[in-house]
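Q: Can someone sanity-check these two? First one:
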Amino acid sequence: LDVGGARLPLGRPARPELVPRTLFFDTPRHLLRLREMARDLSLGERHLLLIGNQGTGKNKLADHLLELLRWEREYIQLHRDTTVQSLTVQPMLDAGVVEFGDSPLVQAARLGRVLVCDEADKAPTEVVCVLKGLVEDGEMQLADGRRILRDAEGDVGEDGEVIRMHPSFRLLVLANRPGFPFLGNDFFRECGDVFSVHVIENPDHTSEVEMLSRYAPDVPAATLRRLSAAFTEVRERVDDGTLQYPYSTRELVNIAKHLQVYPDTPLSQVLDEVFDFERHEVQTRRLLKEILQKHGVDLDGERPRPEEEAFAEKALRIRRPGEEEDIEGSRGGDGDGDG
C-alpha cells in the first residue's frame, strides 16, 4: 500500500472479520493525516498516539488505515473504573459458565494484531503506567503470573509463564486533550515520549464542506458552507476561551445527515437538538445565536417544539385497568353531570 509515498506491506489476515470496515470519505486533511501515520509506521514506529478533541475523527482514521492495510484489530475502551486486571483479563460466557480469558490486549500482543486503545485519557494512573511499561520496556505482568516479554528467548508455548510479544504487534492509542470538558488525565504528559504523536484537529473549511457533501448530497451546498463557517467560528471562540464546549465535526455531520434524511425539518429545529445543552446558559445561548445569525443560520430557541405544544394542549387522564373511558369528558363536556 502506498499512501503519499509511504509504503507499507498489506496484511494477510487469518481472521478477516477482525479487519475493520468503516464509512470513510477522502478529504485533503484526512489524507494528510493518513500519510503521516503511514509514514511513521513505514519508518519503524510501532505505536501511535492520536490525540485531539472529541468528534474530530480519531477512530475513523485509525480504522480506515487498518482497513487499507488489511491488519487485524483488537479493540479496548478504557474508563475511570478500568483496573490493571481488567486490562489483561476479560470475563467470557462459555456454555452458560463464566470463565476468564485473555483480554484483547493480551491477544493482540500474542497473535500480532493491532490494539486500538480508545479513551486512554480516562484511565487511572496505574493503568497508564502499565501501558507505558508495555510500550517502553516491552514487558507486562499479568494477573495470573504470566508475563508478556518483547525479547523473550527460547520456544515459549501458549500456556507457558512467558508470552512472547509478536513482532507485528502494534498499539494505536486514542485520547482526548486534557482539560474541560473531558476532565481526563494528561496522557501526553505521562506517556507522550514513548509514542509517535499525531494531533487530530477538526478539518479545514474546504475539507469539511467536501465531507459534508458526501454525507448529505441532496442538501444545498450553500447551506453546508454556512454551517461549516459558523461552526468554524464557534471553535475559534472555544480556543480563545469565550465558549467552553468544543463543538466538533461530529455534531456537524449529524446535522447534515438529519437534513439529508428529513429535508422538510426546519434548520433551526435541527440546530436546537445540538445546542439544547446551552438552553439554560443565557449568555452562551445568546453568543451562539449571534455567531450563527452572522453566517445566515438562525437558532430559534424560543419557539416551543411541536411535540411540546401538542402535549400542552392535550388534556391527559390516567385510566386504570377496569375503568370505563369517560366519553363525555373526552369530548370536552362542561362537567355539570352527576358524578
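And here is the second, same format, sequence then C-alpha cells:
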Amino acid sequence: MSILHTIRLPLVAVAATATLAACNPPPHDVVQRGYRGTAMELVIDKAERAESVAANKAPDVIPQVPSGGPKAGDLYENVEVLGDLTVGEFTRVMASITQWVAPEEGCNYCHVPGNFASEDVYTKKVARSMLAMTQRINEDWGEKHVAPAGVTCYTCHRGQAVPQYAWSHDPGPKTSAKIDTNGQNIASPTAAYSSLPYDPLTPFLDEDYPISLQGNTALPTGPNVGTKQAEWTYSLMMHFSESLNANCTFCHNSRAFANWEQSPYQRVKAWHAIRMVRETNNGYIKPTGEWLPPHRLGPMGDVPKVSCMTCHQGAYKPMYGANMIDPYPSLA
C-alpha cells in the first residue's frame, strides 16, 4: 500500500465524520401532547422558536387617559364606529391604530389632512369595516377561539397597511396549454411547498367545501370522499401546520385522527377558527371590494383575505398569547 493511499484513508474518514455530524438535528425540545405511547409529541426547534418569539411581540400600549368628557360622536362628524368613547379615549384608540396599521403614513392614511370628517379616502371606509370586524371577533368568537388574549388591528397588520400574510385566489403558474396541473404539483408556500393542491384556502376559508372526509367503510362512499378530495384536505392541514408551526398532534390524536373524544381541545378551537375565518372573509373583508382600487386587488381581481397565517404567523397562539384586548376594551 502506498504512503499516499495510507494518508488518504484517514482523510476520507475525517471528511465522512464531519459530513455525518452536519446531519444531526438542531437542538430541540419535545413536548408530550397526549398519552404515553401514542407518539403525540410536539417537536420544537429551539433556535427557530427563539426567532419566532422575537418576531411575535405585542406592541407598547399607549397609557390610559382620564375618564370623563364629551363623547367623540357628539363632537366630531361622521364617527360611525367608537362614537360612544370619550374624546380622550377615542383619540388614544386612533393613535394606537395608526401605530398598528400605518406608522409611516400617519393619520393621513385614512383621513384628508385638515378635514378628518371627509369620506374621500377609501381607507377610512375600509377601516370602519375592519373595526366592526374586530369587535365581532372579540365579542362573538371570544370563548370559541380568540379568548382570553383577543385581537386588535396589530394581530394581523404588524405595522403594515396590508397584512403580510393576506391572500388572494391563486391562478397558478403559467404552463403549456397541453399541461394540466389539476391545481397541484406546484411548489406553493400555502401548502408548505408540497405537491398537494396549491390553493386550499379558496375552497375552505372563502367557500364552504366539506373538509372532513374520513369514512368508516373500506372503500370511498358518497361524493367528494376520494383520493383527490383527500389531497385538498391534506393541503389545508399543511397550511394549518405551517401557520402554527405545529405538527398534526397539536389538534389530533395520532392513533385515532377521526375521533373527537380522543383529540386535544385545540381541535375544537380549530373547528371554530375555520368558521370564524369564513365569516370574516365573507362578511367583512370581501364587501370592502367596492372601495378598493385595482392595485389593491389580487391577480384574479378578488379582495385580499385572511387565513390562519395572517394572525398566527408561525406561532401556535398569535403573539404567543399576549393579551391584546384588555388595554382596548372598546374593540370588544
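A (reply): Looked at the second one. Residues 55-164+313-331 form a domain with the Photosynthetic Reaction Center, subunit C; domain 2 fold (CATH 1.10.468.10). Residues 186 and 323 are 38 Å apart (CA to CA).
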